[in-house]
Amino acid sequence: MSLVEIKGLSIRFGSLHNPIHAVRRVDLSIERGTIHGLIGESGCGKTISGMALLGLLPQSARVSADAFRFDGLNLLDVAKSLRGRRIAMISQDPAAALNPVLRIGRQMDDVLKSHSGLPRFQRRAAAEELLAATGLADPRRVLKSYAHQLSGGMQQRVVIAQALATGADFIIADEPTTALDVTVGAQVLALLKRLVQERALTVLMITHDMDVVAECCDSATVLYAGHTVEAGRTDELLAAPRHPYTQALLAALPDAVAKGERLASIEGHIPSPFAVIEGCPFAPRCASAMAVCRQAKPPERDDGNHCWTCHLEPHHG
Amino acid sequence: MHLMRYLLRRLVLSVFVVLGVTLLVFVVAQVVPSDPAALYAGPRPTAEQIETARKVLALDAPLHERFFSFAARMATGEFGVSYKTRRLIADDLSVFLPATLELAVFSTVLALLIGVPAGVLTAAGRGGLLDRLGSLGSIAAVAMPTFFLAMLLQAFFAQWLGILPLSGRLSKEFAVLAPLPSATGFNLVDSLLAGRPAAFFDTLSHLVLPALTLASYPAGVAMRLTRSAMIEILQRRHIVAARALGLSGSRILFGHALPNAIGPALTVVGLSFAYALTGAVLVEIIFAWPGLGRYVSEAILSKDFPVIAAATLVVTICYVAMNLLIDLAQAIFDPRVAL
Q1: Residues A46, A51, A57, A63: what is their CA dihedral angle, to the nearest 10 degrees?
Q2: pLDDT digits 0-9 by tens, B28-41
Q3: Are A87 and A164 spatial neighbours (Cβ–Cβ below 8 Å)?
Q4: Cβ contacts of residue B273 below 8 Å, gap of 6+?
Q5: Which CATH architecture has domain B89-338?
Q6: Do the chains contact at A100 and B242, CB–CB below 8 Å?
Q7: What secondary structure does DSSP assign to A75-109, as a single string?
Q8: CB contact under 8 A, B237 and A96
Q9: For a disulfide at B119, which of A222, B171, B223, B290, Cβ 3.0-4.6 Å?
Q10: Chain-chain contact of B335 with A163 (C-beta, under 8 angstroms)
């Protein structure tokens, strides 16, 4: 059984008559012990889906789903009690995610105090151990530091150590490398990969960067305008994308075009979150759109290890 | 290390503040249209008496000499005698200053203990019933005239419930029958030093009403400032991150958000401490509190300049010391302040 099983998740804000659709129809299935990518442009509902998993949506959000399960438990009921116990988060900008006026030691200790029940001196040892496990060279000095005294890479390692300190087995990493420079980002990804293996973690990697997916994700889900449009194993997804949006995304990568040529881009804009979408959400920007695409919801298609939603008949070969 | 350097810098600045106030007090005493010699000589003096007074006070010496001797006397605590009562000002101050400081410090602590948690809780329950009640309370606390609040408190706690004394600083049995030894002048401290808990609680019960009256304004302001700062901080990503890590609500509010949000409240309460030192005349009168405010206002009415000068300097020093404490507290809550 998958660790996370989401079917038809929808999250709306605002009035009942004129709602803002943050997430329209997201399906997401994550296997234990894997890193699963959640890809999409900004505004497609990646982060807010992650917040829903943590039970951290604002009161005004209206959530509904056909299935919204974590380890067999209905998250609509228990998200708050799992938060920080089995589900933790690594957020985008580590400088903003650490409290500026508290020492790292205090922040680590607060997490351990909330979850471990260890006495004080053991918590200190545990904190040092966790920081060392994330590759920080001098844990003692880091514990005494404030966030502004650490580099971005060190801050992100501290944030990861905090997530580990909760003892959670599922970690939502929201663009963990966006705020870091490329080499440090690569180190952080390598660290996450190692931790997943060593500690039997499962990670949801929220990102807009196909390179991140290619580098560390076992499988991935592509979102467009609050819809899951395609999902599957990473190698399948990258080698043989089925949905025109995934194809366009991959074509827009810099290394997909020869040197000196213009980069490919996707014309048009994502639909407004106020819009009512009748057919396929990608139809207005799709090169192979047909009349039916604008009128009817696309069918779900599956070729065994890869599923997508599109009106186009899959062509084999 | 940062902290020590920061405090030293503040300390040096404070010395300049005290020097500046000394100069200012001296200059003001020179330009006020009244003759110190005539005042010193007593009521209806003869020309001869005024002349003698002029010699005693060395008023004919050049200005800079007089300033330096004035500054030297102030520095050594030789404040001289009051023109009006002929009493040693240092003796008067040693009675009135501790009484005032005790009240001011107590009310400042009270303002922080009421205002800051109230601000935190109303921010946490923003828009709810608690928030609305808190807003109402803080507006009332700020807007209520001191004398009116004082009378309300007296009527309620002293008259109606009869659980707190109406006025004064000590009950008769401790003030007259078995007087406290005056080691520091602070009754709370003296009673503890003398090992007399009954006197300690008597002092405390006399402090509560005047301190509440004085604390009402700064507590109301501190609450508003803490509330708005907290509302801003609670949106920050590190608070969301702390929630995502499963920390408890109260630990997030008081342990993680409050240290970021307490700065403005500390500043305002520190400022109101200065007000409580000499501006609390009404409170002192209503509660028959033998404090500095009343002493100084009487001196001002009779142009008793040595008293005014001495009190001004002493208050300046207390205030500067309080500000140093506040700076220290700010730096402890937010280490970036000391950078």
Answers
A1: 60
A2: 888 877 777 777 77
A3: no
A4: B104, B105, B108, B319, B322
A5: Orthogonal Bundle (1.10)
A6: no
A7: HHHHHHHHBTTTEEEE-S-HHHHS-TTS-HHHHHH
A8: yes
A9: B223
A10: no
> Which two structure tokens, joined as six digits, stand for B101?
């400081």
Q: Does B127 touch chain A (CB under 8 A)?
A: no
Contact A111 B240 (CB under 8 A): no
Tell me the backbone φ, ψ of residue B246, rounded to 5 degrees: 80, 20
Residue of B238, B244, B259 lying closest to A88 (CB–CB) = B244
Pull the structure tokens for residue B136: 């109402």
β-sheet bridge partners, residue A30: A4
Predicted ipTM of the assembly: 0.83
Long-range residue pairs from B200-208, CB within 8 A, at least 24 positions apart, any chain? B202/B170, B202/B171, B202/B174, B203/B169, B203/B170, B203/B174, B205/B164, B205/B165, B206/B165, B206/B168, B206/B169, B206/B170, B206/B171, B207/B102, B207/B103, B207/B106, B208/B157, B208/B164
Distance from CA of B267 to the nearest CA of A (A): 18
Looking at residue A317, what is its pLDDT?
Answer: 40
> Cα dihedral angle (B212, B216, B222, B227), rounded to 10 degrees?
110
> Does the beta carbon of B236 lie under 8 angstroms from any beta carbon of chain A?
yes
Q: What are the beta bridge partners of residue A231? A: A221, A307
With 60 as the cut, is the pLDDT of residue A316 above it?
Answer: no
Residue type, A294: R
- In whole angstroms, how far apart are CA B54 and each of B28, B33, B51? 18, 16, 5
Residue from A99, A113, A158, A162 whose CB has the most chain B CBs within 10 Å, to mutate: A99
pLDDT by residue (tens digit) across A19-67? 898 999 999 999 999 999 999 888 788 889 988 998 888 888 889 899 9
CB B262 within 8 A of CB B70: no
**The pair of three-digit structure tokens given for residue A65, joined into one six-digit string:** 């789903």
The pLDDT confidence band at residue B1, using thresholds 50, 70 and 90, is: low
Of B240, B248, B335, the CB nearest to A101: B335
Exposed / middle / buried, residue B275 (Cβ in 10 Å: 0-12, 13-18, 19+): middle
Euclidean distance between CA atoms B189 and A128, whole angstroms:
44
How do the domains of chain B map onto residue ranges? Answer: 89-338
Percent of chain B with pLDDT strictly greater than 70: 99
Confidence (pLDDT) at B302: 85
3-class SS of residue B209: helix
Distance from CA of A89 to the nearest CA of B (A): 6
Contact B226, B115 (CB under 8 A): yes
Residues B299 and B89: their CA atoms lie apart, in Å, by 11
Q: How far apart are CA A246 and CA A236, in angstroms?
A: 12
Q: Which domains does chain A have, with CATH numbers?
A: 4-86+168-309 (3.40.50.300)
How far apart are the CA of A301 and the nearest CA of chain B, in angstroms? Answer: 35
Side chain identity at residue A178, one-letter code: T
Average pLDDT for chain A: 88
* Whole-angstrom distance, CA of residue B278 vs CA of residue B281: 7
